[in-house]
Amino acid sequence: xxxxxxxxxxxxxxxxxxxxxxxxxxxxxxxxxxxxxxxxxxxxxxxxxxxxxxxxxxxxxxxxxxxxxxxxxxxxxxxxxxxxxxxxxxxxxxxxxxxxxxxxxxxxx
Length: 109
Hints:
This protein has 109 residues and is α+β, with helices and mostly antiparallel strands. Helix content is 15%, strand content 26%. The longest helix has 7 residues.
């Protein structure tokens, strides 16, 4: 999942070309999809690979309006804001959180 660099909205797939392009519905900008960001799951369980594989997703959790939000009991580790966006992903359904105020990201182990 990639986001428009101008509006930070989710980019839609353009499938009418041989290569995968992503397009912003708001600005019309088209970007060639980066293969690193199109992989959502794999059998590789290496810690470094696991962290880098979900880097783009983790950095944009709060910007995706489809991700659920919750009142996190202890708040953000950095600013203590309690409204947190989160997703569960991967085979082990690891939970990634992002503060909706300061954009700090963290996960459960």
